[in-house]
């Protein structure tokens, strides 16, 4: 317990919570009180943060990303390609990752996320060329420095071109190495309990880059270590064809055969599930990370979010890697998901509140953290505060709707576990100009030749 005073986030312009018109009180990393209209905090001795110019949201939660890809944004060799040829163009560039380059890529991605109102993020790191064995350790250090809550996945690829897979030999590892390192990073970094700031999950990349043996042994290891499981699934028609040819079944059948169809698993994309498969996912409590921007850029398709929810499948949002978005702005992703799904389902079925719900409570279910994603007593003090004083908001009616409809993209304040990680639209101590210079230089070196 700390000696820090409770903070009253007082009189918000608007807040995504019921019964908190006069704000909320946070203490020791938790929300301890909602202050209703006409009320005052029960505790007398509080520090006051005047939120009268702020719209207050639960901190947004990003459920899918590949941080290292910030080094390969808008890359001409990969542009205007669908997933498989896009990957084949990028694998040789990603093979040139080094610890220094990764550290810069991760810092850029996490900073972008924080500044967009994200308080918890996952990362799916699956590229392990020689020399990059400590990728997850590097990511943990950056997360601690920036103060963002993370669920980092120990990704993997072991099915290379030699064995009928998609990636080149230079970026894959063998099964024993992968499993040993998975156990190592869980033992070293995975925190348990409602206040955990760093957690680890296991994440073979996809059916077309991992062997069946590794899929099965990873599920066993995740159960043994009690950590979550993640992979890409049902992203493209090409993947359906690959599974039919390689395994004689559809991707979800394959997932089930590998022991993955359960509540421990969350899946990126989920575009091509049929009605029966959605029912099976809902029954198993497997959740989906919807990546609206990435799906549009790669022209993969549109995740049937409303049908999924009707089948009991939880939906979260993910920005996906920066080679297919090509940004890490989670607030913009909320707007992208809102627009894409509204176009699909109509005005009666998708509102701005649905999109915000996916990015908060929905995403919290994906990462297995029910204490996140909601402004309520006992939940984590993870908050994103936005001002509406930019030109884009001028003339708005409903402040909460304005965030999504007018296109908010930058939080003014972000609190993670009761501590301010963003103040006045900036991350304290982060030299952004210097970061851009070093990151751009690293990206140029990777993209050259
Ligand atoms: Zn992805």
CATH class term of the largest domain: Alpha Beta
Strand content: 15-25%
Q: Could you say which overall geometry the principal axes of the C-alpha atoms support?
A: globular
Number of domains: 2
CATH superfamily of the largest domain: Metal-dependent hydrolases
What's a quick, concise take on this entry?
With 449 residues, the chain is of the alpha/beta class. Helix content is 37%, strand content 18%. It has a five-stranded mixed beta sheet with strand order 2-6-15-16-17, with helices on one face. A four-stranded mixed beta sheet has the order 4-3-1-5, with no helix packed on it.
Kindly list the characteristics that best describe this protein.
single chain, 449 residues, alpha/beta, Urease, subunit C, domain 1, TIM Barrel, 2 domains, five-stranded mixed sheet, four-stranded mixed sheet, 37% helix, globular, binds zinc ion
Q: Any overview of this molecule?
A:
With 449 residues, this protein is α/β, with parallel strands linked by helices. It has helices at residues 83-94, 99-115, 135-146, 175-189, 212-225, 237-247, 251-257, 275-284, 292-297, 305-310, 330-345, 352-366, 399-405, 432-447; strands at residues 7-10, 14-15, 23-27, 30-35, 47-50, 54-58, 60-62, 118-125, 149-156, 198-204, 229-233, 265-269, 287-290, 315-317, 383-387, 413-416, 419-422. Helix 2 packs parallel to helix 3 (135-146), helix 2 crosses helix 14 (432-447) and helix 4 packs parallel to helix 5 (212-225). The strands form 4 sheets. The chain has a 5-stranded mixed β-sheet, covered by helices on one side. Strands 4-3-1-5 form a 4-stranded mixed β-sheet, with no helix packed on it. 37% of the residues lie in helices and 18% in strands. The chain folds into 2 domains: 7-57 and 378-422, Urease, subunit C, domain 1 (Roll), CATH 2.30.40.10; 60-366, Alpha-Beta Barrel (TIM Barrel). It binds zinc ion (ZN). Zinc ion (ZN) is lined by residues 64, 66, 124, 232, 268, 320-321.
